[in-house]
Amino acid sequence: MMSLFDKILIANRGEIAVRIIRSCKELGIKTVAVYSDIEKEAMHVKLADEAVCIGPANSAQSYLNIPAILTAAEITNASAIHPGYGFLSEDSHFAETCATSGIVFIGPTPENIRLGGDKSQARQIMKKKGVPVVPGSDGVVSSEEEALKVAKKIGFPIMLKASHGGGGRGMKVVNNKAELKHAFYVAQREALTAFGNKDLYMEKYIPDLRHIEVQIMADVKGNVVHLGERDCSIQRRHQKLIEESPSPISNSKMRRKLGELAVRAAKAIKYKNIGTVEFAVDPEGNIYFMEFNTRVQVEHPVTEAVTGIDLIKEQIKLAAGLPLEYKQSQIKLEGHAIECRINAEDPDRFIPSPGRITFFYPPGGPGVRVDTAAYTGGIVPSQYDSLIAKLVTYGRDRQEAIDRMKRALDEFIIEGIKTTVPFHKRVLNDKDFLSGNFNTSFVDRLNGRRNQEQTTE
Ligand code: MV4
């Protein structure tokens, strides 16, 4: 049997670095934090056993600086690197460089990561292996003529998507033949600039979908289990704002279907470690594969709450080559969990509000979890993403999770910067949210209604 790591370097910052340090401590693993010039006083630096400065504030020169991070691992004798989410977490070249440097990358294989990043190839593999995909192109569409042929077959409106985009970036809705020519070239050029690759693929456009994703865990022997679904439909401009598990629209039949498809998707690409299979569910309940996410996700705590499983611990053990400790029948989903992402942003316009936090009091009590690196006197830098806390509530059912969320949002005191707490209070009082009747246009509708109310008053 392989043994766990003696010391892990965490190549990340903020709440996720703190989250990873917590699991390492419980496993008896020493931790190394890395930080940029402006983050000497950051919470992840205070909580880790050791810390190494890896460069200036600009993340290209610090949290994305592969030589600096590998050097930090070497000088501290860390035997593994946890990338968290964002930054280098989905960089197959980084995962490969770790391996050639004799350091374990805590995540899937470089090939898994590469495939996760190649959306049109992933789509083709899923189609071949019987995981339903949205009607569309077979792989990449390389010319406008080819795009028109596919469009004639599936019908407008269609969506052009960048093969190397993802998470909503590099997508275009095309309503008719007349729009297609221009859209094709614009999308190609944008894909090349944004992702360094011009490949596009096509799908029939599905309005009013729900974003439902399934957490999976896979070991090196090829065993795969799923941990139920998360509903991530409450988002704005592809930034998720609220996630929950289970989905209000799911039931045991849909959950079995989603789980089966997610496990099939993971097996199709010989996936190893933890991952997420993203699906679109249309208003008729049809399920379509969208993307394979090869990192730990921001919203993983809602799954931890309903399964009682520490996903970061499992991720570390799986990366060490240990076999899965659970059979599917041993994974029990119980209760309901909701996560509100608290961002340092103006709650009306969602523009960043960095600065010093002059007072910070996180909520607590039954069924409340706060993942954060924020503290009174701490700084929210303008250089990184604006997520400052994840507020997660758990209850026996959705209503109890909601009641606790309302109570926790009321308790939360954050002074000195603006936060999205007031936005979440509005959502938690919205009848469509409360009834579970929402899709990906929810936030625009909520804000649209609100702006109208404000101008007529
Ligand atoms: C779509 C779609 C409609 N039709 N694909 C955005 C994130 C990316 N993973 C997939 N996305 C979409 N793909 C087809 N064929 C609409 C979206 C979409 C969306 C999806 C999930 C959550 C929020 C969204 C917001 C706008 C568009």
Quickly describe the structure.
This protein has 15 helices and 20 strands.
What does this structure look like?
The chain has 457 residues and is α+β, with helices and mostly antiparallel strands. It folds into 3 domains: 7-106, Rossmann fold, CATH 3.40.50.20; 135-204, ATP-grasp fold, A domain (Dna Ligase, domain 1), CATH 3.30.1490.20; 210-456, 2-Layer Sandwich (D-amino Acid Aminotransferase, Chain A, domain 1), CATH 3.30.470. The chain contains 15 helices and 20 strands. The protein has helices spanning 14-27, 43-47, 66-76, 92-100, 110-117, 119-128, 144-154, 177-195, 252-268, 300-307, 311-319, 398-411, 421-427, 431-435, 442-456, and strands at residues 7-10, 30-36, 50-55, 80-82, 104-105, 158-166, 169-174, 200-204, 210-218, 224-236, 239-245, 273-281, 287-293, 336-343, 355-356, 359-361, 368-372, 379-380, 387-395, 413-415. It has an 8-stranded antiparallel β-sheet with strand order 13-12-9-10-11-14-19-17, sandwiched between helices. Strands 3-2-1-4-5 form a 5-stranded parallel β-sheet. Strands 7-6-8 form a 3-stranded antiparallel β-sheet. Helix 4 packs antiparallel against helix 5. The radius of gyration is 22 Å and the shape is globular. The relative contact order is 0.12. The chain binds ligand MV4. Ligand MV4 binds at residues 134, 159, 167-168, 203-206, 209, 211, 235, 238, 278, 280, 290-291, 440.
